[in-house]
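Fold these two proteins, one after the other.
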Amino acid sequence: MAYDRHMNLVLGDAEEYCTLPPKKNIPEQDREKRRVLGLVIVRGDEVVDLTIEGPPPVDHSRMSRGGPAPGPGMGRAMGRGMAMGVAGA
């Protein structure tokens, strides 16, 4: 979602996966532990690896609402309200 100059991260819908050490009483398929964290702030010094598994969610509020169609026009620079005149005239 966001980061700052110290690389502190704000993560949304975060999940944590931990691999447990091998033991005799834990089956092979149950060695990975998953936790849903939700919204998290992570200190930048602690980040070792980051994996993005999908695109960001679509933000429908930024989509066009069918306003006027763009047409031909003219772009002009905007000044401070006074026309530039010739000095000494």
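Now the second one:
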Amino acid sequence: MTEGRQKSLIKNHAIAERFDASASPVLWAGDCLELLAQVPDDTLQLVITSPPYNLGKEYEKRLNLEQYLTQQEQVIRESVRTLTPSGSICWQVGNYVDNGAIIPLDTILYPVFARLGLKMRNRIIWHFEHGLHCKNRFSGRYETIIWFTKSDNYVFNLDPVRVPQKYPGKKHFKGDKIGQYSGNPLGKNPGDLWVIPNVKSNHVEKTQHPCQFPIAIARDRIRQEMAGTCRAAGTDRN
């Protein structure tokens, strides 16, 4: 997309003009840079994406690593521009493989976010059980979700995504709280290791998409981001 075309789209904000806030959900199909350019500054509360890993799949053109990073930085810059000051961005990536050597994409994309002033809040490990087996190394069974915020005044709602306690009936056995439940009655913090099946051929969510994203990953982030109005700042987050 040319610079002139991008400026024209930003000026017109075509998506903003046609957006229907009462509709649920709203889907737009097209080139991500062209669509992002139509979104006004400081508009989106949450951006979640799983970009191509530059592996030469049927839906992507394999680039050298420098070209890939340049391409990703364009998308990241536009995504950050559209975020509200309290907004979050989640970039879900795996590994780039070059002549048998693995390069974790999150480690080389982190500096891009840091240069734009974003702060990482979590590096979430997404673990899954199924996939192709490797012959010359251990089979890969995880990818990462790097979560950044635009400021320290970000939204973090833990209660909607809590998971059951390991010992839900456990109580304090001494001290001032003796006899009281020791865990949160709504459940515990799910932590930064998420075990979610990947979407393969027999998965209930499977469509024709060649590399499909599990609904659970996006669903939990949306619940955590959008439920209520709790904000986190510094050490106040729990």
